[in-house]
Structures are given as structure tokens and as C-alpha cells.
Prior knowledge:
The chain is mostly helical. It is 95% helix and 0% strand. Helix 1 packs antiparallel against helix 2. 12% of the residues are buried.
Amino acid sequence: xxxxxxxxxxxxxxxxxxxxxxxxxxxxxxxxxxxxxxxxxxxxxxxxxxxxxxxxxxxxxxxxxxxxxxxxxxxxxxxxxxxxxxxxxxxxxxxxxxxxxxxxxxxxxxxxxxxxxxxxxxxxxxxxxxxxxxxxxxxxxxx
Length: 143
């Protein structure tokens, strides 16, 4: 295989690595957006649940209540806390996914760098070979 063919292969691989890098950057951006959305949902839920809890307990304090009323409030507060726990778990999953995508992005960047460097080395060899061939032709013409 001549150096020109090898350069074409290295160029193709560098292009493929560039495309893979762009795809991974996009996957990382999607994961970051999902993490921000999960954080927003959790923050909103915490705010809503805190307001609900305060309102329900305030209503209990304003009047004479039965055990059933207290149980209903506790049940509603429990559901709100369960919802918060579920959203916190979703956030944890989103954070882990984002961290994983960041690791993959770093690996993809390294692979792209290696492919580009290999392409540059082969291009330099091709250039040197062309210079050498031109010098040889020149010396043959001088004879």
C-alpha cells in the first residue's frame, strides 16, 4: 500500500472520528439539558410540597379537627414527599447519565486527537516522499 492510499484511509478515519465527536457532543448536551430539567422539576415540586404542607398544617391549626382530618393531611403530605423522592431519583439518574456522557466525550476527543495526529504524520511522510521524488527527478535531469 502506498502512502497516498494510507493518507486517504487516515483522512477517512479522522473524518469518522470528527463525526463521532460531534454526535457525542450532542449526546452530552442532551444529557445536560435533561439534568437541568430534572433539577427544575424537583425544585418546583419541593416548593409546591412545602407550600402545600404549610397550608394543610395551618388549616389544621385553625379549627377543631378529627383524627380523620389529621390522617388525610398526613397522607397528602406523604404523597408529596413520595413525589419529591421520585423526582430526586430521576435527578440522580440524569446526573449519572450526564457524567457518563462527559466521560464518553473525553474518550471521543482523545480518539479524534489520535486520528488527527496519525493523519498529520502520514501527510508529512507523503510530503517528504514528494520532495524526495522531486529531488531525485532533478538529479536525474542534471545527468
